[in-house]
Amino acid sequence: MPPAASAPRLDRLRHWFAARHGLALEACDPTLAAGDASFRRYYRAGLPGGETRILMDAPPAQEDSRPFVAIAEAWEAAGLPVPHLYGADLEAGFLELQDLGDTPLSACFDDEASALAWHKRAIALLHRLQAAAPTEGLPAYDAALLGRELDLFPDWCLSWLGLPTPPSWPALRQALIDAALAQPRVAVHRDFDAMNLMVQGETLTLIDFQDAVAGPPSYDLISLLRGRYRRFDAATFSALVDDFRERAQAEGRLPADLEAATWRHQVDAMAAQRALKVLGIFCRLTHRDHKAGYLARLPHFLDHLRDSLAGLPAHGDFRAWLEGDFAPSLTAALAREGVA
Questions:
Q1: Is 291 left (phi over 0), alpha (psi -120 to 50) or beta?
Q2: pLDDT tens-place string over residues 125-164
Q3: Is 135 helix (H, G, I), strand (E, B) or coil?
Q4: Selection from 309, 300, 307, 302 nearest residue 326 by Cα
Q5: Which residue from 320, 283, 318 is spatially nearest to 174, judged by alpha carbons?
Q6: Which of 92, 151, 156, 175 could be disulfide-bonded to 280 (CB atoms 3.0-4.6 Å)?
Q7: 263: burial class by Cβ within 10 Å (0-12, 13-18, 19+)?
Q8: In a 3-state reduction of DSSP, which class is residue 84?
């Protein structure tokens, strides 16, 4: 469980919620429900009738909650499952949201069969998102943003390992950007992860969508399929990727003449981009933000990167460097850090 907010902010949050509902202050005692990799904290607070709400504390100096509010309202208006926003004080950084419970999708993977079934439900929701969510007002997932994300890998991961950027990096970097920009534009959640899909019965609800952009349809798909919780075998991954393409083509969100091989290349390139970004972000979260637990996830995303690069044969030099230099350096660094 993450640390709670500072006492003064928590006290302000209590006063704000109590005033909104005409509660006596002593009857308002929010309890910490969750935190994330940012400065946001989430609390659960009760109302007299037994209903509960989630209070988001997002300090304005570190977090801008305006995108979250705008997207929550737009996506709810589009009929998408998002938590209802009951009220907000953007100057204070306080939001009151629908309580969706404590069960993220990641808690529902009891075995391989259930994991696959739930991933298919999540992909069905992704189709709804891409079909219904407006792209107007969303930042573009453009070359500059894609490049900044990729640069997290040398800036944070390679610098920690003491490795120079390999000569093969510029060509790979540009190829991954080009592959993303070649795709159509849809609303991209940008962290369509099993921890950000809440389960109520068999219903999935989207959370943590404040970083949404207008970008490639492959991004959220690989966020889910090559995310933190599963590494699908090649046959299962290919089947899910092909099924997504066929439905998206039938519904007009991918070009009807898009060949399966071209789509798979775009998916693998997008997955490589995200894996490289995540390797950098997790190192930054560890060494700049002093957050625990992220280094242990690096080998998992290295495996995702290997899987992705296997579909990009033009970048064999980078793959050779990855195995000959990067992987051994990462293993040694994790051992020094005491990470199993």
A1: beta
A2: 999 999 999 999 999 999 999 999 999 999 999 999 999 9
A3: coil
A4: 302
A5: 318
A6: 156
A7: buried
A8: coil
